[in-house]
Write a structure and sequence with these properties.
This protein is of the alpha/beta class. The chain has two domains: 7-105, Rossmann fold; 122-268, Rossmann fold (3-Layer(aba) Sandwich). The protein is built from nine helices and eight strands. Strands 2-1-3-4 form a four-stranded parallel β-sheet, with helices on both faces. Strands 6-5-7-8 form a four-stranded parallel β-sheet, with helices on both faces. The model has no long low-confidence stretch (mean pLDDT 90). Its EC number is 2.7.11.33, 2.7.4.28. Belongs to the pyruvate, phosphate/water dikinase regulatory protein family. PSRP subfamily. It is an enzyme of class 2 (transferase). One of its GO terms (molecular function) is ADP binding.
């Protein structure tokens, strides 16, 4: 049996928001499931002075403990060169690849920070914001207005991950996603809720396992019938029968991240954004 590793400090550094450094760095760290990491994200390293300050912090940490892991997406060459002086184990997620692309594209990179998550592509940004507004309006069946505009409608018993999945699909991919809760009244007769019937081909089901769902619901309503293992089991079995009867694609979200859930939905529903 592999013993868990000692706690290792990890820094995600960027001259932008830090989102890309954290996402890519964290993805790499998933390959080391026994690792234990203390994570620090430092965004907007926009001056040499700030870069030197964080380098000093990393160096002090390296003197007291094992050298920290450092994931950087700094694009400014001066900032990147300064960060490279740290005594941490540096993984430069930009510098190693930009020269390759410059050669392939026969042009120099702009080396401007903040392009990944800014307004560089105004149309795409506007599309994502409109999708977010749509997802918020159509969260948990609050509105049935313009349901025909939905590209996907997530259906599931309460607390199976509908809301975070629709919000991620909207914000990250610009997908018009609605979600609709399945409750006890929907299960007798095993028919789709009436508002969904015209849009069956847009429906995608989520399920979970009873123990996990009970744990999640207990955090919200401890000691309630709603959170009981029995009630969770009944609702999940009923939902799965509904999915099977109406040939609705579905997945078990119990052990999946919102990123994984969204990727499966995009793939199985044939959505490309």
């Amino acid at each position: 049996m592999t013993m868990p590793e000692a706690l290792r400090h990890v820094y995600f550094l960027s001259d932008g928001t830090g989102i890309t450094a954290e996402t890519l760095g964290s993805t790499l760290l998933t390959q080391f499931p026994h690792g234990r990491f203390y994570r620090t994200t430092v965004p907007f390293i926009s001056t040499i002075a700030k870069a030197r300050s964080i380098v000093n912090e990393i160096d002090q940490m390296a003197l007291r403990d094992e050298a920290p892991l450092v994931f950087s997406t700094a694009v400014d060459e001066n900032i990147r060169n300064e960060l490279a002086k740290c005594k941490g184990v540096l993984v430069d997620l930009i510098g190693a690849h930009v020269p390759v692309l410059e050669k392939a594209l026969h042009t120099k990179a702009s080396h401007q920070a903040g392009q990944a998550h800014g307004l560089g592509n105004a149309l795409r940004y506007q599309s994502r914001m409109l999708a977010v507004e749509y997802a918020m309006e159509h969260d948990d069946g609050q509105s049935l207005r313009a349901l025909e505009k939905a590209e996907v409608i997530l259906i599931a018993p309460s607390r199976c991950g509908k809301t975070p999945s629709t919000m991620f699909l909207a914000l990250q991919h610009g997908v018009y996603a609605a979600n609709f809760p399945l409750v006890d009244e929907d299960f007798p007769g095993n028919t789709l809720p009436e508002p969904l019937r015209p849009y069956k081909t847009k429906c995608f089901g989520l399920t979970s396992n009873p123990m996990r769902l009970s744990q999640v619901r207990t955090e919200r309503r401890p000691g309630s019938d709603y959170a009981s293992l029995r009630q969770c089991g009944i609702e999940l079995r009923s939902a799965e029968r509904m999915y099977a009867t109406h040939d609705i694609p579905h997945l078990n979200s119990a052990s999946m991240s919102v990123e994984e859930i969204s990727a499966v939905i995009l793939e199985r529903m044939g959505l490309r954004h």
